[in-house]
Write a structure and sequence with these properties.
2% strand, mainly alpha, single chain, two-stranded antiparallel sheet, binds Phenylacetyl coenzyme A
């Protein structure tokens, strides 16, 4: 490494220790920049692809009130994607590059969105569990070292909290309803519990990126720490709903004061993140159709902008 870079890197690390935010024009190690682009763009893709499973229920929501709330939630996720793509762009990548990587299957998005939404209860479970997991991950990362990402997460978390509450309300209504409604909630919970635990990523011992991310205060807590926090909160909430956790090995550990679970099916996780989950092909296909099928809107908007700029220049 050139001597100048060693000095700059020492300065950079000092700033991290002093909990200063790193801003787009500040010097940063290339690896820090690349890790941020990878993580923030994957997060942005997750928000956009994450609109699809819930979007599937907009036309079938059981009442006008439910339809309005679901429409608003799905629109919020699009907004989160936009904040995040903007945050990634401050690091020197472009929207087109990020989209290309997604469409070519080179960039990842959260494993959870490759599962189908089969019943209305799934919409409640996504709000309660998926948004709940996202909040635990993102409220800690809102304190991260990169200014634009940190600020976008603060805003996103406020909205995700609202999403979680609307999900819990759906689950609460089903769980205090008829026998059929309670069964529908339990069946849905059985399908979403394990994939939600997978959202936090592999165990710390198998997480190749965690070392660098924690050192640079991009991640503030490890995958396993966040997963455990989610489990401890959610087990208690499930009891209130009267739902049974689909894990025969779930056990309260008196020594640690935490809930121990059985082992996650990691084969399923890697299968999903490598493109072979239940809905990977459908999700990516829908995203590509939306992007390429609507390219005329982008063309019209940019033609108008270009014309306006040409007129100004003339
Ligand atoms: N899915 O070394 P690590 C939401 C990959 S937003 C897919 O541990 P890292 C809102 C990982 O990328 C949900 N891939 O990775 C919403 C890496 O592969 P790579 C998204 C996963 O980065 C709610 C490899 O495995 N949230 O839900 C997953 O240190 C409702 C090795 O893993 C974020 O993106 C996974 N679950 O930790 C929207 C938050 N886990 O890239 C609609 C920001 C791991 O080297 C409806 N991201 N991989 O090829 C993070 O916190 C981290 O990136 C982790 C992964 C924790 C996801």
């Amino acid at each position: 490494m050139p001597e100048n870079n060693i000095v700059l890197e020492k300065e950079f690390e000092k700033r991290l220790i002093q909990q200063e935010k790193i801003e787009p024009r500040d010097w940063m190690p290339e690896k820090y920049r690349n890790q941020l682009i990878r993580l923030i763009s994957q997060h942005a893709h997750s928000e956009i692809i994450g609109m699809l499973p819930e979007g599937n229920w907009i036309t079938r929501a059981p009442s006008l009130r439910r339809k309005i709330a679901l429409l608003a939630k799905v629109q919020d996720e699009a907004g989160h994607g936009l904040y995040l793509y903007c945050a990634a762009e401050t690091l020197g990548t472009t929207r087109e590059e990020m989209f290309d990587q997604l469409h070519e299957g080179k960039a990842k998005y959260s494993s959870i969105f490759n599962y189908p939404t089969l019943t209305w209860a799934d919409i409640g479970m996504i709000g309660w569990l998926v948004d709940g997991a996202a909040i635990i991950n993102q409220t800690t990362m809102a304190r991260c070292s990169y200014g634009p990402y940190s600020r976008s997460l603060l805003r996103i978390c406020k909205e995700e909290n609202f999403h979680k509450i609307q999900g819990m309300e759906i689950v609460g209504v089903l769980c205090s309803g008829t026998k059929e409604q309670r069964e529908m909630a339990q069946e849905s919970f059985n399908r979403w519990w394990w994939p939600t635990l997978m959202m936090f990523g592999p165990h710390d011992s198998n997480s190749p990126n965690s070392g660098e991310l924690l050192k640079w205060k991009i991640k503030m807590k490890s995958n396993d720490e966040l997963r455990q926090r989610f489990i401890d909160i959610t087990v208690e909430q499930a009891k209130v709903f009267g739902l049974e956790i689909p894990d025969p090995n779930l056990n309260y550990n008196q020594k640690t004061g935490k809930w121990d679970t059985g082992e996650i099916n990691w084969e399923e996780f890697y299968n999903v993140i490598n493109g072979n989950g239940l809905c990977n092909k459908e999700r990516l296909g829908a995203r590509k159709n939306a992007h390429f099928g609507n390219s005329w809107v982008r063309d019209a908007a940019t033609t108008y902008e270009n014309k306006k700029n040409n007129l100004k220049a003339a």
